[in-house]
Amino acid sequence: MAATRKTGSLSYVPNWLVLAVLFIILHLTSSKTQKKPNIVVLFADDLGYGDLPMYGHPTSSAPHLERMAQEGMVFTQFYSSSPVCSPSRAALLTGRYQVRSGVWPGVFWADSTGGLPLNETTIAEVLKTQGYDTAIIGKWHLGVGVNQTYLPTNHGFDYCYGIPYSHDMCPCPVCFWPKVPCGLNDNCNSQWTGCPVYENDRIVEQPADLLTLSGRYAKQASRFIQTSAEKGNPFFLYLAFQHTHHPQFAGVEFTNTSQRGEFGDALLELDWAVGEVLGTLQQAMLQDNTLVFFTSDNGPSLRNEQRGGSAGLLKCGKGTTYEGGQRVPAIAHWPGVIPDHSRTTELASTLDLFPTLAKLAGAAVPSGVVLDGVDILPILQNKHGSRELFFYYPTSPDPKYGLYAVRYKQYKAHYYTQGEVNSDPNNHDPDCRPSAQLTRHDPPLLFNLNNDPSEQFNLGNMSEYKQLLKTIDSKKVEFEKTVVWGESQIAGHSSPDAEPCYNKGCSPFPTCCHTPQWWWP
Ligand SMILES: *[C@@H]1O[C@H](CO)[C@@H](O)[C@H](O)[C@H]1NC(C)=O
Ligand SMILES: *[C@@H]1O[C@H](CO)[C@@H](O)[C@H](O)[C@H]1NC(C)=O
Ligand SMILES: *[C@@H]1O[C@H](CO)[C@@H](O)[C@H](O)[C@H]1NC(C)=O
Ligand SMILES: *[C@@H]1O[C@H](CO)[C@@H](O)[C@H](O)[C@H]1NC(C)=O
C-alpha cells in the first residue's frame, strides 16, 4: 500500500528511477526484517518457587540468573502446565495441555514404548518453517520408543545431545566427587539400562558420566549458538538441565562450593551453564537479538528433605496442584526489548511460550488444533497480559475427574486435592503427603491468591463468594468442553525392548549395554 502511494505522488519522476529506489528500500527493510530474533529456552528441573535468590531464598547462589533478572523481567505468577516432568515438557513444546496430546498419566520411564505423538506440532517444527536452526541439549523426557521413534530429531530438532529422561531412572553409580555412590533415598533405579547420552539418534555414552555432563551440555550449547551465528541463521536452543532434580549432585568444580549443600551445588552448576550461554551470546554480539527465557518444569521435589528444593511461601510442591507444585520461577531477558529490573505479577504459563515464540519468528501456528496459550509479548513490554484463567491437572489426570483446580484472576478454586510422594511423605503439612487421598470439595476450596498465596484461608463456603464460584464453574465447564483427551501414551506402554541400549540385543542385559570406554563395571 505504501508503495502504491509513493509511485502516485512521484508520478513526474521517470518510472525506472522509482523502481530502482523502491528496490533499494525493499531490499534494506527486508534484510532488516529477516533478522529474526534468536530464542533460548532454559528449562530447570524441579526448581521451586523459593529456590532462587531473587525469589527470596536466603542462602542460594545463582549469580548469572541474578544478572538475567537485573537486566530483564522476573515473573511472580508463572505456571507450569503440570506438577510433573513429561506432561510439563509436552505442553511447553506443543502449547497444548498434556491431556490433549496423550502425555498422561504421570511420566515416561526408561522402558516406555510410547512418546509425544509424532502428529503433535512442536515449537521447533514451527520455527523451522522460518529458517531456524533448532537444538535440544539436555533432558528430553518425551519418550524414546522401541525404534527410537520419539527422539527429538523426529520432532523438529536438528540437533540433540543429552539423556532422554530423568537421571534417577537409571542406575546412578556416582553422584558426588570423588566418585561417591548416590544416597539410598535417591531412587536411582537399577532395574533399567544405564543412562544413555544420545547425540541425535545415536548413543554416544552409556552409562552417562553425570559428573561431567553439565560441562558438556554447556559446551554443546555454546557450539550450537556459534555455528548458527557463523551461518547467519536464526536459532532456537532448548537447554533442559538435569539440575536440580534428585539425586542432587555437581561436578568437581562445584561440589561443596555452595552454602546450601548438594542442592546449592547443583544450582551453582546450572547457573554456571546459564552464564556460559549468556557469555556465548555476548561474544557473538547476539544479546540484543535474542530472547532468553528461563523457567522450571514443575515445583520442587521435597522428599529428599535437606537435599530437596523449596516452594518458598507456596503450599506443597512437585506432584500436587497446590501452588507449590506448579507456580515456578521465570525470568525473561532481552536487552533493549524487555525493560531491565522489571517484575511482573501478570499471569503467564509455559503454555504461552508456543504462540509467543511463533509470533516472534513470524510463523503461523498450526491450524485445526486447540492451543492453550496466549501471546505474552505485551507482558514482556510491561503491559497487561490477556490470561485470566489457568487450569490445573494433577500428576495423573483421569477423564473421570478432569480438572483439579481453576485459577480465575486472583482466585483459585480447588475441586479436588491430593497429596503426592514428591511433596514429601513427612511434610509438615499433612495436605501434601501421599497419605492425603483424593478428596472432592463441594463447594470448592477457594483462595484469594493475591491476599493469601499460601492457600491457607478457605473462602469457599462463605456466601459472598457464591456468585464468583458460579462464574468459575462456568469457565471450567466451558474449557472442559474443548478438551478431547488424547489416547494415553504412557499407561500400559512399556517393554524392555524400549530401553536404550548401545549394544541392542546383547547379553547379559542390561550391563552389556555399556559403551566400550566406560570404566564402571
Ligand atoms: C494424532 O493422531 C491421533 C490418532 O489418530 C488423533 O486421535 C489425534 O487427534 C491426532 N492429533 C493431532 C494433533 O492431530
Ligand atoms: C521396529 O522396527 C522393526 C524393524 O524395522 C520392526 O520390525 C518393528 O515392528 C518396529 N517396532 C515398532 C514398535 O515400531
Ligand atoms: C565434600 O564434602 C564432603 C562432606 O564433608 C566430603 O566427604 C567430600 O570429600 C568433599 N568433596 C570435595 C570435592 O571437597
Ligand atoms: C468452611 O470450611 C472450613 C474448612 O473446610 C470449615 O472449617 C468451616 O467450618 C466451614 N464453615 C462453614 C460455615 O461451613
From TrEMBL:
Limits of the Sulfatase N-terminal domain: 37-363
Keywords: Calcium, Glycoprotein, Hydrolase, Metal-binding, Signal
Similarity-based family: Belongs to the sulfatase family.
Cofactor(s) the protein requires to work: Ca(2+)
The name this protein goes by in its record: Arylsulfatase A-like
Pfam family for this entry, one: Sulfatase_C
GO molecular function, one term: metal ion binding
Keyword field contains Cytoplasm: no
Tree of life domain: Eukaryota
Leader peptide range in chain numbering: 1-31
